[in-house]
Amino acid sequence: MGQDRVSTWDGVTLRSSYKDRVVEGRDQLAQAARDGDWPTVLDLLDEHPEWINSGRVGGRSGYAPLHQVAWHGAAADLADQLVARGAWRTLRTAQGEQPVDIAGRLGHRHLLVPLTPVILHPLPIETMRSIQRHFHALIHERAGDLITEQQLRLPELETLTEQRNPACWFAVPGMYGGFSYRLDRTQLIVESWCRVVGGSGQRHVIDEHGARLVAEGFV
Description:
Elements: E1 7-8, H1 20-35, H2 38-47, H3 65-72, H4 76-84, H5 99-105, H6 112-115, H7 125-143, H8 146-149, E2 167-172, E3 177-184, E4 187-194, E5 201-207, E6 210-218
Parallel strand pairs: 1-2
Antiparallel strand pairs: 2-3, 3-4, 4-5, 5-6
């Protein structure tokens, strides 16, 4: 099931960061979801399950397929299908809306229950914000100017709280690697590396007080 595998945070916003065929495929997915062409959406996700929480590369709305389900007021069983594939009900748009917020705003009441996030790993909001702030600082420290050059959207930890396996991968274009992170109660375990630099791997444990290096030299 999609909920059990390690998920992917799609932080890429520049179309030039991907090969043309990837951009074209993502455009097809975004167009189909925008048009409510659900058979095409499901076919594309069968082929590329890692796109379940992705929108148009460079798009302004930040809408992933589940947000479009909410906007269209599609059938509740379609929402259930996407959630079973790993769609995040906690994922926010550029305007800060979760799918359930969109459904509520547009009066699609039949979607309120299936789109309401089920939190499996509760974390106090202030703790989560502190950990996320330290995580983002670590990303900037490790990836340097690539974050601003690539105009990356950094990971939001809220999405981990609903995942059965609260683990995610964040690739950084140009780094030849990235960040593997997982929630462990009130801590975030982060491993980062660059594949072309031997021994570049580092493991950090992050809590609300900061990030602590606990291992290095791997990968």
